Amino acid sequence: MSEKYTKMWEALGLDISAHDGLLKVLGQFYGDIYLSQDKRLKGMEYMDFVLSEVHGLRIQELQEAKAAGRKIVGTFCVFVPEELVWAANGICVGLCAGAEIGKESAEKILPRNTCALIKSFVGFKLSKLCPYIESCDLVVGETTCDGKKKAYEIFEEYVPLHVMELPQMKRDVDRDLFKGEVLRFKGKIEEITGQEITASRLKEAIRLINNRRRVLQRLNKLRAASPSPISGRDALLINQISFYDDPPRFTKNIEALCDELEKRVAAGEGIVQKGVPRLMMSGCPMAVPNWKLPFVVESSGAVIVGEESCIGTRNTRDLVDEGGQSVDEMIDAIVDRYMRIDCACFTPNPERLDHIVDMAKELKADGVIHYALQFCHPYTVEAYKVEKALEKANIPLLKIETDYSMEDVEQLKTRVEAFVEQVKQ
Ligand code: BJ8
């Protein structure tokens, strides 16, 4: 891919030699973790292709769209209502932040005890490694955790940034605050695109994004079968790619993959034997290429059957009601849908505990692994309540705190293997 796209990357201002290094590591990592799997679905070839072109073809598509006058909007949080971007003929891309490659640069301006996700997006920008950030006409931040909130104050020196204020609670007054912020975001999007968000365009955008959520819901239902018909790694990858691929093309390809899954489930075939321990992940989002823990889990004799995470069911569980006719009604429907997100940044956050327990039961999970990035206060602190809720439901839990480095892989493996043995009994 490298030579073919070098000119484009140079034009975007990337550090070409560091970027080549990143792609090389990513390719090796992908080969070891993904291509080495047995009994993979044919439909995963599309994902392999998309990932192999992650900084190539998709970026080229974005450049072509920009040349045709469309605007690119990058986000870091599932709280940003992307429907508004698509309704203004913009393109929304989730900026990934799942690698530690720019960590040293990030630590020059951020404290070392900042979570890996924040260091990653700052590091990618400072090290000139991410063609997505460089393609963005606008980056959207949000006041979720303190780490992100304060990092955006610095980040705005480097990118055109719009920060949405998000509530911390879910009272009527908080909904009003969020609605005000959604309207302010709508205004910003209309300003940068020069396009008015009309009722018909917004309706279409709501359907577009709902359809992508629907197909991921279908995938989640199918993978709940026993034996599990798809590896957790592959399902995570599909969720990760959903953040930056073209929505209609993605939806079409995942429908085809689900058709294949359906046949597998009907035939009683699995990616693993029946009886292999089924584990559910819960916690912080795992952005591309953060595949460390899923790989450790699935090479320790277990299979992952679901992710209670923003790169997982938190982003796909709820649809925007499609019944609204006017822009006002549709904005209300968007606000209602997004206010149901149960991020640990909320206080109190009992919905998340219920979701975890319900999901673990529905998936017939033998145990839950709570995954938190080091220094992430919302999730590490909330893990206490998660533990109590699962204890009450008699579901075993393993709490993991880690980052993006490979240094703790052996230690993680030992702990996960012991947990797998425990849930087998
Ligand atoms: S809605 S989970 S995507 S904020 S891991 S940066 S919380 S210190 S990512 Fe998130 Fe939106 Fe919530 Fe989802 Fe802070 Fe924690 Fe780091 Fe985090």
Question: Care to describe what's here?
Answer:
The structure is a single chain. The protein has 425 residues and is an alpha/beta fold. The chain has helices spanning 2-11, 16-35, 44-52, 57-67, 83-87, 103-109, 116-126, 131-135, 146-155, 172-193, 199-223, 232-241, 247-266, 292-298, 313-316, 327-338, 350-362, 377-392, 409-424; strands at residues 72-75, 91-94, 138-142, 161-164, 278-283, 303-308, 367-373, 397-402. It has a four-stranded parallel sheet, sandwiched between helices. Helix 10 (172-193) crosses helix 16 (327-338) and helix 11 (199-223) packs parallel to helix 13. Residues 77-79, 115, 117-118, 144-145, 147-148, 284-285, 310, 341, 343, 345, 373, 376, 378-379 line the site of Double cubane cluster.
